[in-house]
């Protein structure tokens, strides 16, 4: 990073799972730097979804460094995920034709549920009964989630990725895992983690949709599929506490969905 900015800049790691993000500071000027961030950062910046992009530079080794305005702000708390601002910004993202067109032009293929399920089946889960139960349920529900409209999905709408600036502007950051898929991928995790069940209808109303039976099925399908992926991801890295947390979450969603199916 120093070869780009110069030695007069103080550069410190910004944390995160990739280790590719940095803070840079010099004489009151501050930047957020990232190595090989999402190629459509410029459009996200233009749409006001992420902090302003200042410049992009390609290094001799082919790495691309982006610099964004470093904002004074903070992450949202879990309780703040109920805010209208969150529903409105996520809706804006899901309805952005500019983002969708750009990702498609970049060659991003839509993520279909049948492909996602095929990938899940190829993973080795050993003798984890709840995992195999989840896979059987995903197979059974697959026809309910196919042939849906595809949008740009962030895929990690954790409260840590929502940045509220001091001026009150809300941003959704860290777009490394974005896909073109069913918006239920984002809605499911956000609703299950942060919105009490009794408030789903009103929150989705602020987002701009009704909680139909079809949407409920899609939400449950993608939440179960993502939980399986997170179990595997954390297990591979030895994060046992996170593995256990996702197992408990998966079991609770399975119980809820099976009870729902039995009532119909």
UniProtKB/TrEMBL annotation:
Keyword terms: Kinase, Transferase
Pfam families, per the entry: APH
Keyword Transferase (UniProt): yes
InterPro entries for the chain: Aminoglycoside_PTrfase, CcrZ_PhaseVar_Mediator, Kinase-like_dom_sf
Coiled coil (residue ranges): none
Domain Aminoglycoside phosphotransferase: 14-209
GO terms, molecular function: kinase activity
Superkingdom assignment: Bacteria
Official protein name in the record: Thiamine kinase-like enzyme
Source lineage: Bacteria, Bacillati, Bacillota, Bacilli, Bacillales
């Amino acid at each position: 990073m120093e070869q780009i900015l110069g030695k007069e800049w103080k550069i410190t790691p910004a944390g995160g799972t990739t280790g590719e993000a940095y803070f840079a500071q010099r004489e009151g000027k501050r930047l957020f730097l990232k190595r090989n961030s999402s190629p459509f950062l410029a459009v996200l910046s233009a749409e006001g979804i992420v902090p302003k992009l200042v410049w992009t530079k390609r290094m001799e080794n082919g790495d691309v460094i982006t610099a964004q305005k470093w904002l004074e702000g903070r992450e949202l708390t879990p309780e703040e995920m109920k805010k209208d601002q969150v529903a409105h910004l996520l809706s804006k993202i899901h309805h952005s034709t500019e983002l969708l067109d750009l990702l498609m032009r970049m060659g991003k293929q839509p993520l279909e549920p049948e492909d996602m399920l095929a990938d899940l089946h190829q993973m080795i889960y050993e003798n984890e009964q709840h995992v195999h139960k989840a896979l059987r349920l995903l197979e059974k529900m697959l026809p309910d989630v196919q042939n849906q409209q595809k949008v740009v999905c962030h895929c990690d709408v954790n409260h840590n990725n929502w940045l509220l600036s001091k001026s009150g502007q809300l941003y959704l950051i860290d777009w490394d895992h974005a896909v073109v898929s069913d918006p239920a991928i984002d809605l499911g995790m956000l609703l299950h983690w942060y919105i009490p069940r009794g408030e789903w209808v009103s929150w989705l109303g602020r987002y701009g949709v009704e909680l139909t039976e079809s949407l409920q099925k899609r939400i449950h399908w993608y939440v179960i599929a993502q939980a399986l992926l997170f179990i595997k991801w954390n297990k591979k890295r030895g994060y046992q506490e996170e593995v256990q947390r996702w197992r408990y979450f998966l079991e609770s969603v399975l119980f809820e969905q099976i009870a729902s199916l039995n009532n119909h």
